[in-house]
Amino acid sequence: MPTTVRLRSTSAVDLTIAATASNLGGNWGGTLSGGVISGGVDDFENGYEYDYLNRLTSIVQQSQSGGHAVDPKLAEFDYNRASQLTDLHRYSATTAGSSDLEVHSRMAYDDAGRLSSLTHGSSAISSGENWGGTSTLPSSLGSSGLLAAYTFQYDADNRLTQFSSYRDGTSTAYGYDVRDQLTSASSTAISGLSQPFGLASAESYDFDAGGNRKSSGGASQSSANTHNQLQSDGTYNYTYDDEGNTLSRTSISTGEVTLYEWDHRNRLESITEKTSSVGSVTQKIEYVYDAFDNRVGKRLDSDGDGDFDRDEAFVWTEGQTVLRAVDSDGEAASETFTLSSRYLYGEMVDQLLADEQYDDGAGPEISTTTAAATSGETYWALNDHLGSVRDLVDNSGEIRQHVAYDSFGNRIVEQDYDASGTAISSSHPDAIDALFGYTGRDWDADADLQNNRARWYDPATGRWLSNDPIGFAAGDANLYRYVGNGPTNAIDPSGLAEDDPRWWGDTYWFQVWGWWGPHRWAINRVTGYHSAENLAIELDRQLRANDRVAGVNGCDTNGNGVIDPLERLDSLDRLNRSKRLSAAESARVKTLAESAIEGNAAMLGGGLVGSVSRRTSHRILAQVDHLDELDNLGTHVASGKPSQRVTAVPHTYVNPGHHVPGTPTYVAGKSVLPTNHVQLFARSVGVRNQQGKILRWAREQRGNQTIYHRFEPHSSGEYHWSGSTCGVDSRGTNRAIALRDVPVREIGRQTPNGGWAIQE
């Protein structure tokens, strides 16, 4: 793929994509007979900017010089002190202007750090405003400016118990069994709001000991064999091959058959629908994959006559589909792909921000050598807490498509609208052809299946079509069960292991490719150890990887930073909330956590598949205060006792010179003052140590490296820089502060104050 990645500045990375033949695999899918795609014109360029904590602050998508016209897009991100995403502004321009603001999304969180409300408006939402789940709307938006909004309530086990939707006018209550499997979902009307789509029918589920669905809606539905393979769901009978892939689905009432074919890598290769096992073909779909198992092509024979009438091609980069091209006639010997959609994502996996679409066949040809002067039309995606795309809104503030899902992702409402807001059918020329849906993954309406990268998901059964490629390492003995039957509280964008979406903007929304990365995969793997003994052995092994990966002061032998204690606590916090740990196991986790912090162990996951070269998450664990098992870990200063928090007040910062080589006051053997020492002090926070002295601390991120800087006061009250966790002297000798002496948790709880008097 001709992708150019270059460093524009120290705080931004550009991503440039060219829509050329090789992006579609050259001889597309190996299916062309004499037709070769050639030519190609540069398409879009994405520019990324980050703040000093390495958090993404803006994305700009625009055209390249000499390339196709691209609808300009800008997304800006704001965070709270816990590095959770609080505001997302999207503009139809490359610079932020009030007249170009298309969508303002605001997130609010409860005291445990959980998402409590998500509000989408077509204009700026005033500070502190959010939709509260009633008929009262934010005054800054009113009835015309509020596009979509949701509120969330949780129980003591962090399970979603109440979900309210403004556009649907409904509030849904959820119930669970002792294994956190969803057992009920019941919707009621929100007083004062209309229910334009009616009330969703109540859901109820029952599961056997293996987590297989036994009934739905009170009716006996499913039976599974000893391999947890679904044999019958009351509507269809199923068969499997020796690899555990679904081979057939046969209608009990009509005898109609759906056949599934898989390649040698257990990738779904084709789906054939027939009137019966020996009857005629009514539809056939074929899929094409690249060497990295990304689905890069789809071919559709919609009537089973043997001729493909539609082909689609997908361009991938960084684990996401960024371009979609379509050949409307599907004739293999004369492929004419035209650009159908270009997508813009946020930093989180499957966080779709915008879908720029062309009418069918109206986009620029992939094989053209002439740049298109006309861009497509941009639709802004409005997501819910799971990342599901529920609404698409145009640049005029009109909702153009609304989708509602049941708990397992079945579409219970799908309504299109024209540019004036009038409801239209999905076959109308103005209807939107949206690729992404439930949990932000791409939906194949022809197959009624969802592509979650490594596997295909069937929302009708709440199960995967094939078993988990990583087997029991994902932590579930049932290799077909979707997210442990807890779809309201978990997602699985990889098709490999579930993850928790409820803490937006932090480590629970993992980074692009994070689902494949060793750190997140290792954490999911650890949650799968069901006995205290096995869990302890595995955690011990991972924590001891410190000897190979990192030195004792937070810097490894290659100069890279390690996962800091906050992220270690985050990992252990996740283990506790996984609900797979007994009291004894939780106690063991606590012991290992204390050992990890006191001993400066590097990271969970580092010992499984090598060191992790990705930026450290900067989420501050506000919710650690609310954990029963981890609450008493303390600050782990040198004495091992918690430090007292101190409210910062302005002080004077001085540079006496004894950390600056070459000055008369330099003291040999002292660590060297960093060049950004003034800026570091300006964002430092105060923590009182055991001797009653208020030290000031600043946290800095240098690429993958997390560094803590210490500032000490003179008797006069003036502060000076006095070392860091990666300090060296003028000869390069290690003069670092031990990470165990850094009050990490207390630093995380403070907000830097301004107003410092600086004296150089």
Automatic annotation (TrEMBL):
Where are the residues of the annotated region Disordered?
Answer: 211-247
Does the record's keyword annotation contain Repeat?
yes
Question: Where are the compositionally biased (Polar residues) regions?
Answer: 213-238
Annotated InterPro entries: Rhs_assc_core, RHS_repeat, T6SS_VgrG/RHS, TEN-like_YD-shell
> Superkingdom, according to UniProt?
Bacteria
Q: Where is the Teneurin-like YD-shell domain?
A: 374-485
Q: Which UniProt keywords apply?
A: Repeat
PANTHER family xrefs? PROTEIN RHSA-RELATED, PTHR32305
Can you say what this protein is called?
A: Biogenesis of outer membrane
Please give the organism: Rhodopirellula islandica
